[in-house]
Design brief:
The protein is an alpha/beta fold. The chain contains 9 helices and 10 strands.
């Protein structure tokens, strides 16, 4: 951990320790560390919302995710190859996360995965189910990744979804680290001004990202110490046979113009090449003229629509007006 400008070293360590809510079963971490000692490649992955994507960090290398990845670079120099995979997309929940996890995350066969959706999901059963679908999907992957759950928080309110998320995390016996139980307590107690670490009381600035990274790195240091000294390390990890929820979202599919051909009545296929993961409004369809329609025929038990919504009626400065659309399902 870096030296913190607001706290003495032992005080900051105590705050970081307070953020560890569960250490969980560390067998998969033991396997990861053993492979790195043999010089095998290591793939560090993150999935979540805008905080994971690095919102309000001045440069990408100042984001909490990249700082945590840098810790792996420093501590495991013997690995032959170290890859950084950031699958964070702003303003998205675990419902979209589970639908895109195969293509955006698991395609890379990650060894360690950090999951951060606690300020994007609401603290309700629906998101407990979508979150479990994502966690179970990751744990079932053939690369057997070690998984850490991150509880981000709103620094102005203390609101997040960690109650339901951590029910899932403890059920699967995973390491959990919480910003509400560490940094936010300092804000609530007036020992730390929220606007010093987050201009909008949600997305961390560079200092806020550094503090979030410290909380996570403290957990990683604790895990590394236990694994290195073989302190109460499980000799296997068994996925619970049954999910804790109905788990209806684990097989979610994200349909777009790469895998579906709807009927177009004035709509057009967006053929602009997607430039990267965060270029989210690609591979879809668009309509310009009034009265345009698009018709999909799908069989499913649950349906969500991903669409672009403008904050103002006028669009991105080109003088055209954003369309007003109507959605009709089953007539």
């Amino acid at each position: 951990m870096e030296e913190n400008r607001f706290y003495k070293q032992d005080e900051w360590k105590s705050i970081c320790d307070r953020g560890i809510l569960n250490l969980g079963n560390l067998y998969r971490f033991k396997s990861v560390i053993k492979r790195t000692m043999l010089g095998e490649p290591l793939r560090i992955a993150f999935i979540g919302g805008s905080i994971t994507a690095g919102a309000l960090a001045s440069i990408s290398s100042s984001s909490y995710a990249y700082l945590v990845y840098s810790w792996f670079k420093e501590k495991f120099p013997m690995t032959s190859y170290l890859e950084y995979i950031n699958a964070g997309i702003g303003a998205t929940t675990s419902r979209l996360g589970v639908a895109r996890a195969r293509e955006d995350l698991l395609l890379h066969s990650p060894d360690v995965v950090f999951v951060e959706f606690s300020v994007n999901d609401s603290n309700e059963e629906k998101y407990m189910e979508t979150y479990e679908g994502l966690i179970r999907l990751i744990l079932l992957h053939s690369s057997s990744p070690a998984v850490i759950l991150i509880n981000s928080v709103g620094y102005g309110s203390g609101i997040n979804a960690q109650e339901i998320h951590n029910k899932v995390g403890r059920y699967y016996d995973l390491p959990i680290v919480s910003m509400r139980d560490s940094i936010y307590i300092e804000v609530e107690s007036h020992r730390l001004n929220a606007n010093m670490i987050s201009p909008d009381y949600l997305h961390p600035n560079d200092l806020g990202h550094r503090m979030v990274a410290d909380i996570i790195i403290n957990l990683l240091e604790t895990i590394r110490n236990k694994v290195s000294n073989n302190i109460n390390i499980d000799d296997k990890y068994e996925l619970p046979a049954k999910p804790i929820t109905r788990n209806r979202y684990i097989d979610s599919v994200l349909w777009n113009n790469k895998n579906m051909k709807p009927l177009l009545y004035g709509f057009k296929t967006d053929e602009v090449i997607k430039e990267g993961l965060w270029d989210v409004f690609k591979n879809g369809w668009y309509g310009i003229s009034e009265g345009s329609r698009i018709s999909f025929s799908v069989a499913c038990k649950s349906l969500a629509i991903l669409y672009r919504k403008y904050a103002k009626k006028e669009s991105d400065g080109d003088g055209s007006f954003a369309p007003i659309a109507r959605l009709v399902v089953d007539n």
